[in-house]
């Protein structure tokens, strides 16, 4: 266990960079999902035909 802690501590900067990159990728993915989902949700709310098509 000490070896793991030492490795994590010695590579702390690399680990923080990797975590930050992961957060950025996740947020970009979430943004793309919202860009796709929000217009679809608005179309369903305002157009009954669209809602019926998506419920099938």
TrEMBL record:
Keywords: Membrane, Transmembrane, Transmembrane helix
Membrane disposition: Multi-pass membrane protein
GO annotation, cellular component aspect: membrane
Compartments it resides in: Membrane
SUPFAM superfamilies referenced in this protein's UniProt entry, alphabetically: MetI-like
Transmembrane stretches, start-end: 23-45
Coiled-coil annotated residue ranges, if any: none
Keyword Membrane annotated: yes
InterPro entries: MetI-like_sf (IPR035906)
Annotated protein name in UniProt: Binding-protein-dependent transport systems inner membrane protein
Species this protein is from: Lacticaseibacillus paracasei subsp. paracasei Lpp126
């Amino acid at each position: 266990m000490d070896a793991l802690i030492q490795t994590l501590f010695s590579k702390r900067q690399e680990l923080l960079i990797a975590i930050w990159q992961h957060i950025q990728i996740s947020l970009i993915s979430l943004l793309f999902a919202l860009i796709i989902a929000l217009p679809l949700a608005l179309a369903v709310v305002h157009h009954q035909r669209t809602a019926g098509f998506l419920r099938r």
